[in-house]
Amino acid sequence: xxxxxxxxxxxxxxxxANQDPFGLAAWVDNGADDHAALAGVCxxxxxxxxxxxxxxxxxxxxxxSL
Length: 66
Description:
The protein is mainly α. It has a domain at 24-48. It has 3 helices and no strands.
């Protein structure tokens, strides 16, 4: 598969011409108005590389007064 070296519309062309494992090109082709579908695509991309970086992250102790 050739490497993508462009910007903007070229990414979409490369996704259509090659394997698009997350369905991003299909989301664009369907009008790109379904925000829940985009969130699903983003979650799939994140899950493929180990998940959301801050999942389960706790920054210190929660104060008892909260």
